[in-house]
């Protein structure tokens, strides 16, 4: 399989051409923010909420106006926003109930500690669907920080979801997608042999801490073989960080692994 | 593979300032609407009052059409004119001025024009003039002139048949006619 370049996202509303777009990336151990694609700050932190508050205050002071809040995109690492397959669950009567059940199941499926907030991509009553879980305390911190620092979040999404948008924009037939980040390795796979009666994702998982290269390569091959994914339908992405020598904050484009060569 | 949305953007909730602003706007709207309604009511009241006053003013200046005279108008006016005629003072002057040598022989009083004609039989002109002077005493007409005037008189020399000179109780008497006007202002029939 040859590595594929993924262009920056086009559907998230934060295109790379916009010069004044503020983007915040937060991981489990580090994070920072950019203005118009230029890194303004990048620091390690012990607790994600700590770094988020520091960057939000910085952004609010520099870009907030008395009559207008600063607007920014917040990208979460795979270690913070973890996908898993949820359902099918019979007997669920509504979205609220489905979210409660999914939130209850999220810690066991994702490894997140404590209560979670979830986002369901589809109704889980008849078929399994991708569900993304986020720690509830971090979700509250995101909301309270925005309020306190006069920031309006335009997007609060996992970085891997943005990278998937870019991959699908480039290749709509993508069936296997992997994102490597500093703190996590996220894998999404759709079986090409799945019947039309049961469409949807077959695998959605985040491995945190991130797998080393050998483990990632092995997992990648197993997925390709197990689900019959052709080489041209498998896309890999690496979200680089300035601390690792890359020039940009979360950058979905580029080959993966970027420095060590393509996986085979 | 389908796109994964996974959007955790906080749901917008109004802040206290926003709620306060909305409440202020709502209150201001209610006050403004109330003021507008009150002003409209006041304007409507004033307009109705102006219309009422205009109606009253036009009504007061209305020229009523003359009422048609009732069928009994002429009779009523005749009756009132006769009632208003100076019968009594006319007769009183004749009575008060009675003297020897002058004898009223007929009284013709037309209530319509208030003219009283009295035929007199007199013995000579001096007596007649004295009589006229007596009956005119104290009863001048409206312009201060003697009321009774001599209309005609015939002296003693006229003996022709059919003349006014007559023979009364063996004496030849002249006949004269005096006239006066006793027309009083008739009472108005207008209501």
Please tell me the CATH architecture of the largest domain in chain B by its name.
2-Layer Sandwich
- Count of alpha/pi helices of chain A: 5
Helix run count of chain B? 4
User: What kind of oligomer do you see?
Assistant: heterodimer
CATH class of the largest domain in chain B: Alpha Beta
Q: First CA to last CA of chain B: what distance?
A: 108 Å
Give an overview in words.
The complex is a heterodimer of chains A (264) and B (191). The radius of gyration of chain A is 18 Å and the shape is globular. The N terminus and C terminus of chain A are likely disordered. With 264 residues, chain A is of the alpha/beta class. Chain A contains five helices and twelve strands. In chain A, strand 6 and strand 7 form a beta hairpin. Chain B has 191 residues and is α+β, with helices and mostly antiparallel strands. Helix content of chain B is 41%, strand content 19%. Chain B contains four helices and five strands. In chain B, strands 1, 2, 3, 4 and 5 form a five-stranded antiparallel β-sheet that branches. The longest helix of chain B has 45 residues. In chain B, 14% of the residues are buried. The interface between A and B is medium-sized, with 32 and 11 residues.
What does the secondary structure layout of this molecule look like, with pairings?
The complex is a heterodimer of chains A (about 260) and B (about 190).
Chain A (H helix, E strand, L loop, with lengths): L21 E5 L3 E6 L2 E7 L3 H16 L6 E7 L4 E6 L8 H16 L5 E5 L8 E7 H13 L2 E8 H12 L5 E5 L4 E5 L13 E5 L5 H15 L6 E5 L26
Parallel strand pairs in A: 1-4, 4-8, 9-12
Antiparallel strand pairs in A: 1-2, 2-3, 5-7, 6-7, 9-10, 10-11
Helix pairs in contact in A: 1-3
Chain B lengths: L15 H45 L12 H12 L2 H10 L5 E9 L4 E8 L2 H11 L13 E5 L12 E3 L2 E11 L10
Antiparallel strand pairs in B: 1-2, 2-5, 3-5, 4-5
